[in-house]
Specification:
With 407 residues, the protein is an alpha/beta fold. The protein contains 16 helices and 13 strands. Strands 5-2-1-6-7-8 form a six-stranded parallel sheet, sandwiched between helices. Strands 9-10-11 form a three-stranded antiparallel sheet, with helices on one face. Strands 3-4 form a two-stranded antiparallel sheet. This is CoA-transferase.
């Protein structure tokens, strides 16, 4: 039994932030029903290639992007623009603990699927809305996109190479961090609301916004600015106060991270590279001196690092006690012994007959471990079963809904 195996979730979200949230709940044991448009479904189903492969190795209609955020869910296709589809959603919501949606502000109210309407039927409902900019404010009606929010929320002002260096300028993250972090905050908010409900019997509305999350997650960068009124700048892979604390390219074109935290570690680093004299140079002997003369020192260190391969450097620096690590490609990540030992890849049978190769949930619970039981569903895979099980619909009723294009 999962920690949330007593919880029913109605998932009206799509793309990434909402599905990431509900996948967390599903991994923890919640019964998550994903509502999708008939014939189309979640937009990310077609965001490929690459695609899930069937037993013969042929591409299916399920993009890998979709697979990343929809494990352990069941799919029900419904056209909620029709009264019959809306009635099904309301009936399911009346049996659910949580509703998650990421429609435009006010859109679900037109269908009678907003919080006020559903809470009137089920007062202890926890209802979470995820939008780009929240339910109020001058930008509330605007659609939200992760890339744009990374820029608006300040993340790109502190991410990227220094302006004066080649390739300098603002840079987005390699993954949709605003979406992912909003999904994570939404998961936490839902569990807090469920705890409150269990104590009081009262549900509540949760208003999550990508921009709010992006601003919040800048953490110490925010407080640095608020304390000093000086905007932080981009440093790329370098550190403003410590040298060397950055990346270096190796002889085999691999990359390492060197995180020298004191003068003793600096000496060990350059001794490992056969350049002990650098530690005796007054310009480089102490960290404050190295920071002042970083433009002289870093090219010398870069040349030194290019004399050995990535694996050779890691072996030498780990032996010497210098904080370091490789910059791994994803093939290297999933082949890494620590990643393997932690079980971070999970393979699940897919409805196509192939195997869905997925990333495991990183939460480790001793008494109620997370589950990985079902591959992300094909579009409408569980429609009949859900309507029969939850609402008692018979085959004739389901056939009529399907003939009308509702299911």
């Amino acid at each position: 039994m999962g920690a949330l195996s007593h919880i029913r979730v109605l998932d009206l979200s799509r793309v990434l932030a909402g599905p990431w949230c509900t996948q967390n709940l599903a991994d923890l044991g919640a019964d998550v029903i994903k509502i999708e448009r008939p014939g189309a479904g979640d937009d990310t189903r077609t965001w490929g290639p690459p695609y899930q492969r069937d037993a013969e190795g042929h591409d299916t209609a399920e993009a890998a992007y979709y697979l990343a955020a929809n494990r352990n869910k069941r799919s029900l296709t419904l056209d909620i623009s029709h009264p019959e589809g809306q009635a099904v959603v309301r009936a399911l919501a009346a049996q659910s603990d949580v509703v998650v949606e990421n429609y435009k502000v006010g859109q679900l109210a037109r269908y009678g699927l907003d919080y006020a309407t559903l809470a009137a039927v089920k007062p202890d409902l926890v209802y979470c809305s995820i939008t780009g900019f929240g339910q109020d404010g001058p930008y509330a009606a605007r659609p939200g996109y992760d890339f744009i929010v990374q820029g608006m929320g300040g993340f790109m002002s502190v991410t990227g190479e220094r302006d004066e260096l080649p390739g300098g300028g603002p840079q987005k993250a390699g993954v949709a961090i605003a979406d992912l972090m909003t999904g994570m905050y939404a998961s936490l908010a839902i569990m807090a609301a469920l705890t409150h409900r269990d104590r009081t019997g009262v549900g509540q509305y949760i208003d999550m916004a990508l921009l709010d999350t992006q601003v919040a997650m800048l953490a110490n960068m925010n407080t640095n600015y608020l304390a000093s009124e000086r905007a932080p700048v981009r440093w790329g892979n370098a550190h403003p106060n410590i040298v060397p604390y950055q990346t270096f390219q190796c002889a085999d074109d691999g990359w390492i991270i060197v995180a020298v935290g004191n003068d003793g570690q600096f000496r060990k680093f350059i001794e490992a590279g056969g350049q002990p004299g650098l530690a005796d140079d007054a310009r480089f002997a102490t960290n404050p001196a190295r920071v002042r003369h970083r433009d002289l020192l870093v090219p010398l260190l870069a040349d030194m690092v290019r004399t050995l391969t990535k694996d050779e450097w890691i072996a030498r620096l780990e032996t010497a006690g210098v904080p370091c690590g490789p910059i791994n490609t994803l093939p290297e990540v999933f082949a890494h012994p620590q990643v393997r030992a932690r079980g971070m890849q999970v393979d699940l049978p897919h409805a196509s007959g192939g195997t869905a190769r997925l990333v495991a949930n990183p939460i480790k619970l001793s008494a109620t471990p997370v589950r990985a039981e079902m591959a992300p569903p094909t579009l409408g895979q569980h429609s009949d079963a859900i309507l029969q099980e939850r609402l008692g619909y018979g085959p004739e009723q389901i056939a009529a809904l399907r003939a009308a294009g509702i299911v």
